[in-house]
């Protein structure tokens, strides 16, 4: 019985130490690109999520991204959208994370039946 109790306490300690929010934040750091654009044009387009919440657009000149965060299962990206005439408007997206692994990120539209809105693949995986 003592062994079972000790084992249960160890499992509880690991469960409490693992913060899903922090795990998602660590996993999303890196370059994420649209696989369909890459497949059709060979061009990497997407987002570079950096440690500390900084963000940049990859090969999307109309976006000047500044920051990202994950809150309550949503990916929030902020910056500015730049029009052809140079004017800038506030850019902010809030998309529900459907799946996040080291290789893929899917963002879903939250309706009665969630559907895929955006799919991104880790750029390291695309370049292989």
TrEMBL record:
For the keyword Signal, the answer is yes
Q: Which InterPro entries match?
A: Lipocalin-like
Taxonomically, the superkingdom here is Bacteria
Q: Does the keyword Ion transport apply?
A: no
**Signal peptide per UniProt:** 1-17
What Pfam families does UniProt report for this protein, alphabetically? Lipocalin_3 (PF12702)
User: What are the Lipocalin-like domain coordinates in residue numbering?
Assistant: 25-112
Give UniProt keywords alphabetically.
Signal
Identify this protein by name: Lipocalin-like domain-containing protein
Species per Swiss-Prot/TrEMBL record: Butyricimonas faecalis
